[in-house]
Amino acid sequence: MRRELRTLGLAAGLLGAGLAAAQSPTEIQRRYESAARQAAPAFAGLSAQRGEAFFKSAHGGDWSCASCHTQTPLAAGRHAVTGKAIAPLAPAASPARFTDPAKVEKWFNRNCNDVLKRVCTPAEKGDVLAYLMSLK
Amino acid sequence: MTNDDKRKAFDLVVWTSSVLFACAFVAHEALAKDKSFVVTNPVYQTECGSCHAAYPPALLPADSWRAVLNGLDRHFGTDASVDATTLSALQAFLASNAGRDRQPNAGTPGLRITESDWFRREHRKVPAAGKGAAVKSAANCAACHTGAERGDYGERGIRVPK
């Protein structure tokens, strides 16, 4: 009985942690926007148009975001090396996208390193998010 | 019933049960082998199953997995880095589930499952179609092994795209 209670408690704890971590794409976008404003007080706001250009540019290298996530991120993508299927990136097509801040940061870190050979700025991340959220 | 008949009946029972037992043993071994390909660790599945199938840990020896985990920031040309907590979970999981008899190359710890003699032997009859655009890479297990996501690499689930 005690073990069952402990399992129940653990399950409730995990659920609570999951709910606490879950956010909407808008909340995550706002966080990037305020970080961008903090870095540059004159920051005029996020731009879906700038995000689209950023998303589709190879930035002088071999890959762009679109290499795996396609030119129309409402569609399913494919990993540029392995060929594995990737669920659509736009939240309108995959509601689970951009709801876990830690996951979003993990992938921006990895993928910006792959595409740009550096980390992305909060403004760049926010712009990309603005672009992806504008797709319906 | 004569004694001879009794002996024949006894022999029949012994032989039948021996054959049944042998069949059950072989079937059990085959199932156990398939089970070793089923991955049920959620951290491993999430972290190592996004860009490619969550490869069965039994396909590389512990030395190779250690080398893979030590270079996740430069993982076959991409950044696959994870945070410290995730890394130690992966280390523990792979150390205890690594294969014992899957040395890719004698000597150095090989990092590619596809370079092992075992992998080459298993895939020697893969038709040229299996190397086309629909598959793209040998890392794309699920392109032909339709049950790869579930750890099912059995013959019956194989569909090589045309």
Overview of this structure, please?
The complex is a heterodimer of chains A (136) and B (162). In chain A, helix 2 packs antiparallel against helix 6 (122-134) and helix 3 packs across helix 6. Chain A has one domain (24-134): Cytochrome Bc1 Complex, Chain D, domain 2, CATH 1.10.760.10. In chain A, 57% of the residues lie in helices and 3% in strands. A two-stranded antiparallel ribbon of chain A has the order 1-2. With 136 residues, chain A is mainly alpha-helical. Chain B has 162 residues and is an all-alpha fold. Chain B has one domain. Chain B contains five helices and no strands. Chain B is elongated and about 80 Å long. The mean pLDDT of chain B is 83. Chains A and B meet through helix 5 of A and loops of B.
What is the fold's blueprint, element by element?
The complex is a heterodimer of chains A (136) and B (162).
Chain A (H helix, E strand, L loop, with lengths): L1 H20 L3 H15 L8 H9 L8 H5 L7 E2 L6 E2 L14 H16 L5 H13 L2
Antiparallel strand pairs in A: 1-2
Chain B lengths: L2 H33 L6 H7 L13 H9 L13 H14 L19 H6 L40
What structural keywords apply?
heterodimer, A: 136 residues, mainly alpha, two-stranded antiparallel ribbon, 6 helices, globular, B: mainly alpha, 5 helices
Helix content of chain A: 55-70%
Helix content of chain B: 40-55%
H and E string of chain B: HHHHH
Beta strand count of chain B: 0
- Poorly predicted sequence stretches spanning 5 or more consecutive residues of chain A: none
Structural class of chain A: mainly alpha
Using the alpha-carbon principal axes, give the shape of chain B.
elongated
> What is the CATH C-level name of chain A?
Mainly Alpha
* Terminal residue distance of chain B: 65 Å
Q: List the domain count of chain B as a whole number.
A: 1
CATH domain topology of chain A: Cytochrome Bc1 Complex, Chain D, domain 2
**Tally of individual helices of chain A:** 6
Strands of the largest sheet of chain A, in order across it?
1-2
Morphology of chain A: globular
State the domain count of chain A.
1
Largest sheet of chain A: 2 strands, antiparallel
CATH architecture of chain A: Orthogonal Bundle
Oligomer: heterodimer
Tally of alpha and pi helices of chain B: 5
